[in-house]
Amino acid sequence: MELQKLPFQTQFSPSPSLKDFQKVEQNTQKYSEHQTLNIPNSSNPTVDPIFLLSFENLTYSVKVGPKSRFPYCGNNIVSRETNTNTKILLNDISGEAMEGEIMAILGASGSGKSTLLDALANRIDRNSLKGSVTLNGEALESSVLKVISAYVMQDDLLFPMLTVEETLMFSADFRLPLSLSNAKKKERVQALIDQLGLRNAAKTIIGDEGRRGVSGGERRRVSIGIDIIHDPILLFLDEPTSGLDSTSAYKVVKVLQRIAQSGSIVIMSIHQPSSRIVDLLDRLIFLSHGQTVFNGSADNLPCFFDDFGCAFPKKGNPAEIALDFIRELDDTPSEARNLVEFNKSWQASMNPDNDSNYKSSSLQLKDAIMRSIARGKLVSGVIAATDANLTSFAVPAFANPFWHHVLANRGFPKRRTGAIRMKSTS
Length: 426
Ligand SMILES: Nc1ncnc2c1ncn2[C@@H]1O[C@H](COP(=O)(O)OP(=O)(O)OP(=O)(O)O)[C@@H](O)[C@H]1O
Ligand SMILES: [Mg+2]
Prior knowledge:
By secondary structure, this protein is of the alpha/beta class. The chain has a domain at about 50-60 and about 85-350: Rossmann fold (3-Layer(aba) Sandwich). Helix content is about 35%, strand content about 15%. It has helices spanning about 20-35, 115-120, 140-150, 165-175, 180-195, 215-225, 245-260, 275-280, 300-310, 320-330, 335-350, 365-375, 400-410, and strands at about 50-65, 85-100, 100-105, 130-135, 140, 150, 235-240, 265-270, 285-290, 290-295. The chain has a six-stranded mixed sheet with strand order 6-7-8-3-9-10, with helices on both faces. It has a four-stranded antiparallel sheet with strand order 2-1-4-5. InterPro entries: AAA+_ATPase, ABC_transporter-like_ATP-bd, ABC_transporter-like_CS, ABCG_transporters, P-loop_NTPase.
């Protein structure tokens, strides 16, 4: 990727000086003023992908209660060699996700989808997680991850009496830096409302059981909105479509596609996506008992299962068909193991040189982040606390000082009951 193509004349070097950084910051702010209003949509995809998230041999196990008398029974994998009470939740999982794309984690309930998502989002103690997670080849420090990522949980608590616009504005006040003007925050909120497809519901209250408010699908998009107010580079979502009808679920994933195409990596777990949703997913990882049984694009599913010996029907939802096959194979442990092994050899045969499936970015992580900011990501100022040599990103969990949040909460009108839960990936 040519740095000269940047919209401003700044040369990055592996170790930028403070002067370089200040220059980048100034230009970034100028450029992002424009970008804040001009959030790309699907017709304006990212031109040069620069982020590649790789994870290799992720293995995670936990100690479980009293010794099982029947260690080989049940769905959970219990260490067979030692007959100890160790339960393997993730077993040697590898893969890649690239900017501009959605990677979906699929599998039956209990297969390890949320655990894998947590592992990638650094929500699992690094000492108990084996393997590596890197962005552009560099290990992700949690302080950096906090700044550049967001994690959207399944159930967000929202203030029922606030409108959609007020909710997002509250999030902007809460998460964007004090140094960003109110006008800029409002611009960001308006851009987000359009990006989330919430224009018609902007003035509608969130509501709850007693008060009619936004629909379930709109509510879910507001939940995503409060977490992506700072326009993160990495977005993790745990089942963003669960509980939604197929049209609302499709709209949510369409929004996620737009977010990915604005220069983010989107990784989510999902239960039984419809065919229309599968078409929006760039890469799928199917898990079974914490192991990968398929990793690739949905287009490869028929060929993969045909090669394994399961005739893949020509018609139907490929994700559903694959999940049905996996469920059937799960009933016979030896068959399930065969599928895991077959996936490894199939992956190797598809990629004999063991190269990344993606053209890996040549940019160092710091430079890639800077370039991304220059394109309008990480709403201006969020990384203001970055140190001069860019050796670490000394950014607190929230963009504003602690006292600001205390005051913001205390100053909130009494009639507005409920709670907004702001999360970071820590
Ligand atoms: N701390 C723990 N101790 C023991 N087992 C655990 C622990 N945390 C998770 N598990 C088990 O790990 C397995 C994977 O859990 P996970 O939440 O990742 O599943 P999932 O695929 O997300 O399921 P669902 O679709 O129901 O959300 C489950 O069997 C769960 O019970
Ligand atoms: Mg889950």
